[in-house]
Design a protein that fits this description.
single chain; 231 residues; mainly beta; Immunoglobulin-like; five-stranded antiparallel β-sheet; five-stranded mixed β-sheet; 46% strand; Ig-like_dom; Ig-like domain-containing protein; Ig_sub; Ig-like_dom_sf
């Protein structure tokens, strides 16, 4: 009983000292904070435990979990991609479900920064941003068909640029004309870029010059097309 009495006396002495040092307004404010244990939500964003962050390939399903600590509990949770709010879109393979985000059959367009945001009566909390990298087979950097005019026996240099991850790309070139398709061997390559040196010898040398690549993820589906026409 004596110990409890001494503790009360010490608390009253501390309260009185604070009153004279801080004034009543600051003391009331400090006591309110002591009584109110609320806090802005603390968020931590993580990929699903079974997912290897450094080896996500196109076509895979990706799961994000937003772990939240908050008092009082949150009344709103949202998701951001490149600072834009994400909504469920089943046709695009995006499923937003409170503290979870699912990306089905990811593509290179899903690469970027993801973040979860939560709000309670104390304010808004944001997780750190998590960068999602997706490995994908090569695609044309410029998808438009380009047209080149060249005379017979004249050499044309054409550079084909691809996007790919990983960037170690093996290139292939071919010519499609009205009669046949033939491989073109006279080219050099480095990384995701290849330059062909092409010379039409006769009228069969004109047509569609095709460029495509392959990497560890797969072979390019749609080739880059360059139309070669006589001048």
């Amino acid at each position: 009983m004596t110990t409890q009495k001494n503790g009360v006396q010490q608390w009253l002495s501390s309260l009185a000292a604070s009153f004279f040092e801080e004034g009543i307004d600051k003391l009331v404010s400090r006591c309110d904070k002591c009584l109110n244990n609320g806090n802005i939500p603390e968020l931590r964003l993580a990929l699903g435990a079974s997912i290897q962050h450094t080896a996500i390939k196109e076509g895979s399903d990706v799961y994000f979990d937003c772990n939240i600590r908050a008092n009082p509990w949150v009344h709103d949770v949202s998701w951001r991609f490149e600072d834009n709010i994400l909504f469920s879109n089943l046709s695009a393979g995006i499923i937003v479900s409170n503290q979870s985000l699912v990306l089905q059959r990811v593509k290179k367009e899903h690469r970027g920064r993801y973040q979860c945001v939560a709000t309670n009566t104390e304010g808004e909390g944001r997780s750190e941003e998590v960068q999602l990298d997706v490995q994908f087979a090569p695609v044309c950097k410029n998808k438009a068909v380009q047209v080149f005019g060249v005379a017979k026996q004249e050499t044309l240099n054409i550079t084909c640029e691809l996007e790919a991850d990983p960037t170690d790309v093996k290139f292939h070139w071919a010519l499609n004309n009205t009669v046949e398709s033939m491989d073109v061997k006279n080219f050099i390559s480095e990384g995701t870029s290849s330059t062909v040196f092409y010379t039409p010898r006769n009228m069969l040398g004109y047509g569609a010059l095709l460029c495509w690549g392959s990497n560890d993820i797969g072979r390019q589906k749609d080739p880059c097309v360059y139309r070669i026409v006589p001048v």
